[in-house]
């Protein structure tokens, strides 16, 4: 399956998620592209929309290679075998971790106006992105949410992800909802006709519109 764009992917996921959260559902979307997908789910199912902002920690000489991730509270998760292979220690990445923490704070304040969340404790929480490759940022988000909110149910919903990544994530959630698990997976963008970059301003506008709809 190839999705026309993130809006279509969100609508298809909403159909799969119907009835999953009986009440008090919260969609926590990963910016930027995941917010477009998550907004459709929240709109169709009548749920709260908010963002969760984990950040990838890339290899020092190849930033595209994910060797870990960090959450807004500074909790870090590393791919230990890869660190060993690259002959790196966690302390070698301290400066990079701090830089990503500052970027998380910048985006939280830009998108939401504050770092603190409403009390989502004990609610059904759906974590949404526009697709998953390695899964390290998503894993960081899931563990942070589990620790922070102790949700009644934690669901991961994405349009597309490779099966080996999902195998690593299934123990982190109560339910996985994934539309496509292709064998030939190279990048999330290959499964969208329109995978144009979502801007900060679009994220801000989407969140404002959803807040107004909920008022």
From TrEMBL:
Keywords: Glycosyltransferase, Transferase. It comes from the Bacteria. The keyword rRNA-binding does not apply. One of its GO terms (molecular function) is glycosyltransferase activity. Residues 11-195 form the Phosphoribosyltransferase domain. This is Predicted phosphoribosyltransferase.
